[in-house]
């Protein structure tokens, strides 16, 4: 029962509009990653500026609860935004809400840097308020970008295109490190200060208050640059046809971007919609797709516990790896520079390659195998770090840095990419955005476990606690390995075939009655 407009999308050759869609959606993820991860480069500076206590004899540091809120509040907003905009993406249309998320991101990135007041309470309070809403906008980008890209792409390269959109997250993380490093290097050259051990007060340059604000506000620039092009994109053909029921408009829109003639087939569309008219919260949905939904949600939840724990706590791990000096041997802006440089190096050589390995190999190896291997290797490397932490820290810092970088590589050439791709492919069109949102929100719930839980183990650089954190993350990744068996391979198949919307249902999408009667096998035979 395949519609001509859908077959045209599935069989289309790769052309300029595919590249345009990747860039437009990808710049959103570039901004998302920058905004979520740049806070790690300046959080220690916030501690020195607003929480210095001379009686401790140590540089100022954000209290554990405040640190976790500052770094984690955007994740709470992201989770909320994913659910809100994911639902609206199915109800109102992908395009209609796509621009709203970008406006929120631009406005709140600027406002984060303008956090007002001079006391710790007022500055941190307003910063957290705006970062929550920043995360809310970022959250909407997850289901909308993935869904739009999956519905535009052809079936031969769909996984690579969706992964390429997500790979811009790696570029955003690199850019967060680079911008922080560049600005801190400029500030450091103009505003020199003694290290903390020589002068506890003068080691914190007051100009650092401008530095962290500039770093946060830069996140508004790439988002603002793509707004016009997002608004120029037509609604996806699948949404217009299958959800709005407008075969003529879908055929016209897709004929324009594909530069071919497409027949509308309104009568066939009516039959198509009638055969797939069951709601999300129904027994039929769960019999067909419940296993997949549990699989995508659990894998993303477990992955993000480890992935965000790594990214948000790396500033605490860097001293142990020898990538930055002790805090007492640096002034405030020096600490930003060295933390940013270390983050940039790890991202460039560990994080970034993994994303693009996924782009290049996902259609050859498949999503399922990449996710399995990624989870297993992450678990292995974290287990080694946890068991041999003292040796790696004291006697072999180069090996420590290599192992730590490899965990990032296999996270991105692994589940961090595939958990984004699979929910955009496995579910029916009318609930695709919502199901992706549910999966992504489960991931952000895992990220919050990392931000509000695992970070407690690393804040004070206690060896036993860091070892414990690494062992916990190793077990978490191993659980993700086993949960991967709840999903199925999707490469080379159309979205309608994967979800069973075209009647060609697999063992995982057929209803129990179909399995007993064998009707799903009959439908396959008829089409052959």
Automatic annotation (TrEMBL):
Q: Which PROSITE patterns match?
A: MFS
> Which intervals hold domain Major facilitator superfamily (MFS) profile?
21-492
Instruction: Determine the domain of life of the protein's source.
Output: Eukaryota
Q: Which residues form the signal peptide?
A: none
* Pfam families per UniProt: Sugar_tr (PF00083)
How is this protein annotated for GO cellular component? membrane; periarbuscular membrane
One of the record's GO molecular function terms: symporter activity
Q: Where is the composition biased (Basic and acidic residues)?
A: 496-507
**GO process annotations (BP):** arbuscular mycorrhizal association; cellular response to nitrogen levels; phosphate ion transport; response to symbiotic fungus
Membrane-spanning parts: 21-46, 66-85, 97-116, 122-140, 161-190, 210-229, 342-362, 368-387, 399-417, 437-457, 469-487
Just give the chief location class. Answer: membrane
Q: Where is composition skewed (Polar residues) in this entry?
A: 508-520
What subcellular locations does the record give? Answer: Membrane
Q: How does it sit in the membrane?
A: Multi-pass membrane protein
Gene3D superfamilies, per the entry: MFS general substrate transporter like domains
Q: Which controlled-vocabulary keywords does the entry list?
A: Membrane, Phosphate transport, Symport, Transmembrane, Transmembrane helix, Transport
Q: Does the keyword Magnesium apply?
A: no
Database matches in InterPro entries: MFS_dom (IPR020846), MFS_sugar_transport-like (IPR005828), MFS_trans_sf (IPR036259), Phos_permease (IPR004738)
Positions of region (Disordered) = 496-528
PANTHER family referenced in this protein's UniProt entry, alphabetically: SOLUTE CARRIER FAMILY 22 MEMBER
Stated family: Belongs to the major facilitator superfamily. Phosphate:H(+) symporter (TC 2.A.1.9) family.
Q: What is this protein called?
A: Major facilitator superfamily (MFS) profile domain-containing protein
């Amino acid at each position: 029962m395949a519609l001509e407009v859908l077959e045209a999308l599935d069989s289309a050759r790769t052309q300029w509009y595919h590249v345009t869609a990747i860039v437009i959606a990808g710049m959103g993820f570039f901004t998302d990653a920058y905004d979520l991860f740049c806070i790690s480069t300046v959080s220690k500076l916030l501690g020195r500026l607003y929480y210095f206590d001379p009686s401790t004899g140590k540089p100022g540091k954000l209290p554990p609860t405040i640190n976790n809120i500052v770094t984690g509040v955007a994740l709470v907003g992201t989770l909320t935004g994913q659910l809100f905009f994911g639902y609206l993406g199915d109800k109102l249309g992908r395009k209609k809400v796509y621009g709203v998320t970008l406006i929120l991101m631009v406005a709140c990135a600027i406002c984060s840097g303008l956090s007002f007041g001079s006391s710790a309470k007022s500055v941190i309070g307003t910063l957290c308020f705006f970062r929550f809403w920043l995360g809310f906008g970022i959250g909407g980008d997850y289901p909308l970008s993935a869904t739009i890209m999956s519905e535009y792409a052809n079936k031969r390269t769909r996984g690579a295109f969706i992964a390429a959109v997500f790979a811009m997250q790696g570029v955003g993380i690199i850019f967060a490190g680079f911008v922080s490093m560049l600005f801190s290097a400029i500030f450091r050259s103009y505003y020199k200060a003694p290290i903390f051990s020589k002068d506890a007060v003068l080691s914190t340059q007051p100009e650092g208050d401008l530095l962290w604000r500039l770093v946060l506000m830069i996140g508004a620039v790439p988002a603002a640059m793509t707004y016009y092009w997002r608004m120029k994109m037509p609604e996806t053909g699948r949404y217009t046809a299958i959800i709005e029921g407008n075969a003529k408009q879908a055929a016209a829109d897709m004929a324009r971007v594909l530069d071919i003639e497409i027949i509308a087939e309104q009568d066939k569309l009516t039959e198509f919609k009638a055969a797939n008219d069951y709601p999300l919260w129904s027994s039929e949905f769960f019999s067909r797709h419940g296993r997949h939904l549990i699989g995508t949600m659990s894998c993303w939840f477990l992955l993000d516990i480890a992935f965000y724990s790594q990214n948000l706590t790396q500033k605490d791990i860097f001293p142990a790896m020898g990538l930055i000096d002790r805090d007492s041997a640096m002034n405030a802006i020096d600490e930003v520079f060295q933390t940013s440089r270390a983050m940039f190096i790890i991202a460039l050589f560990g994080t970034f390659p993994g994303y693009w390995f996924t782009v290049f190999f996902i259609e050859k190896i498949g999503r399922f195998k990449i996710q399995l291997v990624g989870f297993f290797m992450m678990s292995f490397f974290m287990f080694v770090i946890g068991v041999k932490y003292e040796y790696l820290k004291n006697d072999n810092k180069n090996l420590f840095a290599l192992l730590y970088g490899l965990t990032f590589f296999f996270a991105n050439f692994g589940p961090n990419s595939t958990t984004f791709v699979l929910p955009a492919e496995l579910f029916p069109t009318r609930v695709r955005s919502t199901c992706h949102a549910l999966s992504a929100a489960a991931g952000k719930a895992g990220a919050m476990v990392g931000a509000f839980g695992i970070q407690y183990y690393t804040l004070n650089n206690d060896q036993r606690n860091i070892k414990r954190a690494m062992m916990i993350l190793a077990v978490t990744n191993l659980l993700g390995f086993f949960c991967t068996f709840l999903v199925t391979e999707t490469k080379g198949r159309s979205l309608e075939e994967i979800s069973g919307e075209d009647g060609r249902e697999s063992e995982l999408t057929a209803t129990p009655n179909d399995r007993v009667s064998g009707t799903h096998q009959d439908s396959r035979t008829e089409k052959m």
